[in-house]
Amino acid sequence: MGYQDFFKVSNENVKERHALAAGRIAEICQEACVAGRYRDYFRKTAGFLCLVDGILRRQEAGELDNRTLEECERDNQALHEEILPEQYEDSYLNPAATARALGTPFGPLLSFLSVELRAAIGPAFEGRREGVVLWMELFLEVYGSFAWEEEPEADEVRRILYGFFYDYSELFAEDKVRDMVEPEYDFFTGIVMQSDLDDLRYLYRYGEYVGDCERKTAQFLNGLPEKEIQSMADAVTEGFRVGYQKMGKDLSKKETVCLEYPIGFERVMRAVIRNFAKLNLKATAFRCPSSSFGRGGGGRRGCCSVSPNRQFEFDHKADSAVYLDKAFVERRMEAMRAAFEKYKAQAARHAGPAVTETFGEPPFSPKLKAEALQFAAEQDSIAVYQMSRMGQLMNAYIPGDERSFTMIAYPSPAIGGSFEEIFRETARINTLDSLEYEAMQQRLIDVLDTARTVHITGKGSNRTDLWVGICPLRDPETETAFENCVADVNIPVGEVFTSPVLSGTHGTLHVSEVFLEGLRYVDLELVFSEGMVVSYGCSNFEDAEEGRRFVRENLLKRHDTLPMGEFAIGTNTAAYRMARAHRIEDRLPILIAEKMGPHFAVGDTCYSYAEDTKVFNPNGKEIVARDNAVSILRKEEKEKAYFHCHTDITVPYEELDEIAAVRADGSVSYVIRDGRFAVPGTEALNAPLEEALKTIER
């Protein structure tokens, strides 16, 4: 059974609807049945849908795989050109440009529609006729409300849009669940395993944007020796296996693992899939969500390309405001539950995600646009409620105490002329000697375990002055508060971490500059009391209130407050040295950045939904700091226990003064002093640190 078999019946059922919709849209490209100011919008949008329909028809005729490279590139440009920065400013995809051209209230709504219609591209390449037809029909319904030069009421257009997402929740939900847990749906893994990877036309088979990064990455990986490719694949699969082993979970009960990977990495993914097959795991994959229904508030997920325009994504991060209300959320949860029930057996045997990320894009500071859709105050709480319900539902069918994950990152060519050198250095860092780090990290833990609080202070202009409560040990011979994290679920190696005691956690966390989920924060400051964020801000904007709103929406994920879910000390000074040597510290993903200094996560603990699963360090001691005063609420009020977010904020070594373990009797042992590791036996960590700090001084 292949992916096309999933749609034989539905494709046939919508055959007549497709013919009618496609024919009507072709007519709109030429007619003048709407008021003059809207005519260009509807003609151009109809033209885009005609392009998509052309892709679908060629897919159904078996012609897409026979395109020349020039034809592939031409199709790629035609489908995605309006997102590219050079055209976006005047595109109907841009809410500001659409508002200028069409005024309010229709500008933001029609810009929203243009973005949503892009969700038809993926189904066209997959041959999912129904997935194209429903977007065509949405466009036609909105167009019909404007026809014959009569401007509709804005509420009428909103009702059309709301009804569409409400009515098609089941279809969208089933797509989401099926692609994650059903290995027979092999559109993406089929490209990886069956393509001639030396023929770069395969990149264009996904239907995602293909730019220089994707082409150069594929060419670079194609030129590497098989030994290096296999080493990269082994890092992923061995990290996944060890993660299960370390958490005491039974991988033998699982049958699938979901790959999330950048387009261009197919040669590595082919080796990963073969490795997982040896562990009796079949690979699944899903498309990076295009519609607001599936995008959520995070970064790019699934099988995806490097973002061609992060401002475009930022402008549309709150697009679900068009239809988000309590009734819709309940409807969506009902649809998601039905989808999980349909794939209940597959979900129970799903092991979790194996994620490969890329980094290297230039720093991004978004422009705030008044024309972009924003959540109303009541929608903030609804969005938080939806996130909570979705997390609980996922955990009911794929229990957190039975699943795991692994994550690894490599640079993309966007990082610049030293791409190949940085890639090889990153590959080396991703495979550092875990045993060497394990021994040094255990020395740090031995000191930290004696503390009741840890005091962290910044130096220079860094205003960090933070006290973190540490879980007391009943039996120090068999228990520990800190996990000795080597290269398993979070690659590369290099951190010790704990879940803080919230009642003993207070003070100020400050970072002069940090990049979180692709967004730049300047002078980020969070103030904690009893472990909870009580105030926050940044200096990104002249208006301090805009800075607070930016932090609340993007870092706090619209919550009024979040707990400190993790305190950790990153030990990978080799990664820090690499970052400083190439001056790429502002381009690193949090996966690597968190290993380059102490970091503090706001949100859930690292043991979310698996707090009752015993976890042990390599020395046999049980990690007992798996809960905090918020997560423990799961025993009585689960809806209050989890926030379904976890964002790490790293203080770089050069902004760090001291980390001191303060015991109950007031005595102190220094873990880091004057920005250097101070525990005997960890001196090796300081050599690359000294080199990096000299680079800064120069």
What is the oligomeric state here? single chain
Estimated structural class? alpha+beta
Query: How many individual helices?
Result: 26
User: Going across the major beta sheet, what is the strand order?
Assistant: 12-11-10-6-5-17-18-19
Helix content: 40-55%
Mean pLDDT: 93
User: What fraction of residues sit in β-strands?
Assistant: 15-25%
Q: Could you tell me the radius of gyration in angstroms?
A: 26 Å
Distance between the termini: 61 Å
Number of strands: 19
Tell me, briefly, the overall form. Answer: globular
- Most strands sheet: 8 strands, antiparallel
Low-confidence stretches: none
3D architecture notes:
The chain has 698 residues and is α+β, with helices and mostly antiparallel strands. The strands form 4 sheets. It has an 8-stranded antiparallel beta sheet. A 5-stranded antiparallel beta sheet has the order 8-9-13-14-16, covered by helices on one side. Helix 3 runs antiparallel to helix 9 and helix 24 packs parallel to helix 26. The N and C termini lie far apart (61 Å). The mean pLDDT is 93.
